[in-house]
Design a protein that fits this description.
Length: 114
Amino acid sequence: CLHFLTLDSHGKFAGHRTTIELPVGSGPRHVAVDVGGARAYVLCELKSSVQVVDVEQARVIQDIRALPETVDLSGNPFFRDTVKQSESAAIKLLPGDRTLLASNRGHDSLAFFS
């Protein structure tokens, strides 16, 4: 779940705004919100994907893979032998809200969306 809260003018908790359900097993890890607060981009660690959320409609409007279809973990023995999958790690929305960046551990890659 993704919970949106309301803060008062002093930055203190003022109430619960909305809750958005995310796919079971997706493993939401980090979120980036555009300057206007209309879109949230949720990095899902376990699915290595980005869920694009329309905040006003309180729903996921797009699911974007952060990895190519085939993932080669041979260059990273820990992820190859122990974790057995790549996992997304961080997400950043660059100034101007036009480029989104997601990092992937194991695959050791960056995904750029614009």
